[in-house]
Amino acid sequence: MHDLAAGVKRFQQHVFPAKAELFAGLAASHRPDTLFISCSDARVVPELITGSEPGELFVIRTAGNLVPPYAPGPDGVAAGIEYAVAVLGVSDIVICGHSACGAMTALAENHDLASTPATADWLRHADASRARTAAGAGGAPTVDALVRGNVLAQLANLATHPSVARAANRLTLHGWVYDIPTGAVEELVPAGRPASPAA
Known about the structure:
- By secondary structure, this protein is α/β, with parallel strands linked by helices.
- The chain has helices at 2-18, 20-26, 46-50, 76-87, 102-108, 117-123, 127-137, 143-158, 162-166, and strands at 34-39, 57-62, 92-98, 172-178, 185-188.
- It has a five-stranded mixed beta sheet.
């Protein structure tokens, strides 16, 4: 906690004063252009990767960058998506996976998750990703293949959300994979869509 407190102090003394005008504007207006859905992994920092300023990204982070298919009932991920699309009016949604993802490693390598039942239950949202990737690989998928297959599967899940379906004519969905050791960002292209580079 000492490091966090020191970071807050540096923010208040150096960062905030340099951006005081930006923060004053943000106090009265919240209009991000992009919903960015990424993994909870501490090595993945959406604002840093994209060079975004405060107010430019609406961020949802989940273990494995998973987006459960829409279902009625309380769901924090669904609520975040709905708010970003229907209220904030974002024009783009990025689902960003990453290299060496712990969630995808656990699935690809069949880790025993008995001691973490909530994690095991959550990762069932990637069962279709694992099955699809394994079928395409002719057997057990590699972690890298599963990371990519999972991003594409989560894009498909995202499309099941009513707010996304209603705004389909003004929304662009993107699938990215961030490579931690090189900083590279690869855009994945779902079948039937033309490629456009992420960076």
